Predict the 3D structure of the following.
Amino acid sequence: MPRFSIIVPSHGVAGRLSQALDSVLGQSFGDLQLIPVCDGPGAPAATVAAGYAGRDSRVTPVHSPPSDGLGGARNAGMRAATGTYLLFLDGDDLLLPGALAALDARLTRTGDVDVLYAGHERVPWWEGEPTDPAAPLLAKAPKGVFDPAGLPELTGVQLPAWSAAYRRGFLTERDLTFPDSHFTDLGWGGLVTIAAERIAVLRQAVVRHRLRRQGSRLNLPGPHQHDLLDQVERVLTVAAERGLPAERTGPLFDQLFAVVLKTASRPERLPSGHRAFFRRAARLHRRHRPAGHRPPGGSLGVQHRLLAAGAYSAFRALRGANQVAARSTEALPRPHMLRTRLRYARDLRRPLDPDLVVYCAYWGRGYACNPAAIHAKARELAPHLRSVFLVEAGQEHTLPGDVEYAVIGSRRYWEVLARATYLVNNANFAEGVVKRPGSVHLQTQHGTPLKTMGVDQSAYPVVAAQSGSFAKLLGRVDRWDFNLSSNRHSTRMWERAFPGSYEHLEYGYPRNDVYCTATAEDVARIRRDLGVPEGRTAVLYAPTHRDHHSGFAPGLDLEAFCEAAGEDVVVLLRAHYFYDRGRSRGSERIIDVTAHRSAEDVCLAADALITDYSSIMFDYANLDRPIVVYADDWDVYRETRGVYFDLMAEPPGAVARTPDELAAVFRDGSYAGPEAGALRAAFRERFCEFDDGLAAERVVRRVLLGEPPEAVPPVVPLAERVPAPAAATLVRS
């Protein structure tokens, strides 16, 4: 029998689940059972949990349908638990280092207790200092084991379920389970406190609770807010049946009604039925108020008295001024010029244009990437829509002649942003752009994440220092309605890197459609346009940006590589777009394509790819052509930027760590051999999941035309796709 069973529900947090599980399995105290609770065998979290179970016998995944909620998931974990003590951990939180050892040491000193309450950290994972809200309460507790009457303020109502360790025998004897309710922690905490006889505290924090940017789901408006009163009534009824003395009932009553009054004072949480909520709360207050109860002081005490009297109108009047002030503090948009600010504010009051779509790619670099591919497909499927591309000043010439545009920062730029119903971007719109009700923001992304992104960068000082405020970043994420993924790996990583309330669209990347639709004639034309000599093997070299470098350094002597690799090899050099300054680095055997606007054209022209850690490898894999990873500084890159998986363990082809190794795999042909092919096949299976040539159509139909999800074209299986032919294949055939 393990000392601890740790139960980890995972619904909606598959992207961060591995971090939670690692925080448990990495504990110095190893006598444990880890129980991830997943939605079902086919759910993303179930795949993650199954991988851990295959590597560690202490992991016991169980399933609970999403309809059973958080309480049902925890109950499913409890039924599978065999540990002496149970702990609960949310799937996007962390068990702090040394937590289990500290809990075990404390329990060894106290002997068996029903509940051991512990501290916890609350912290935004993107930035900010942690706090321990339980610390003031736990500091008042006696040093050893005590009866709940020894500290009646410690009711469990103020502490989440994961801020304690529970003796499994105690829970079984008292038949304690989590209520089926949105407010399951409140009901659980109250009932456990009523039943417990021996409790103790550990003042050390054991869990790091990472605050969601959008706040608690319990604060969302809806009829579920009435569940709160169900739990309050249940707890107070049980307390009365058990004959709890007034000195214990009083603090329990005050803490429960503090939560009730917080909801009652926010009418927006109850768009319908607010008066009914108030009246029922008033009846509960009068029925369960302990004898001799004295309301708290200040404004909260006034609210208690108004609630007890059922004075709904007076209660609303008391809170009305604050509600009006909160609704009127909309931030002013931030265009630079006063006249532009005023015009933008005026345009925000005009109706949205239902047919206007605004596109932007790479902060205005031009007509490129997923936004360009969606724009092209929209012209075909939704010709009634009017499209405007945003472009930075000086780059207007890069746009096709028939594409309408607005220069970033201009009066017209702010006007179309204010009026557009649809906004499509592969990065983010400016800080001052307001998300209007009724507008639809589509975030297309621009690559599959190998390196850490978004708030995950906060753990890496070099990149975090260059990223600005993570809180502001997440404020921009709040504007997203849809977020595009090309594979399930991306979906999970976007979920953790950019936490938000948007809908994931696992439709593939529209820019990659061309890898399934381009013809042999297209490939030959692109090679001619780029200047690739006929009959040569074109190797695309595309290194990524290094956060620890101040400028572009090729990392490889390309002239020497060409000489060593063979006389038929030419290199297409594509530096990261950060280093596109319009200057050519080319020579006779090196063709600089950095300034070429279409990465897709460059990939189609290449017979093979050499990259280090660039996301271009995931896109290029759609072509099913050889990929070589040149990893001369993998360890440094991994430590300074952080990565989501070990590329060296799961590469898309051959791996070289020195220039000699790189040249050798081309000289002997192993870069395109059967071993490299097998690695590429596994890589494609994982990362080319949705890129089937129909991604742009799915996006246009779902987002711009508003068709239901079931109406969009299904994904073509990988085995049935035919990638665009490589030039080398054409020559050989």
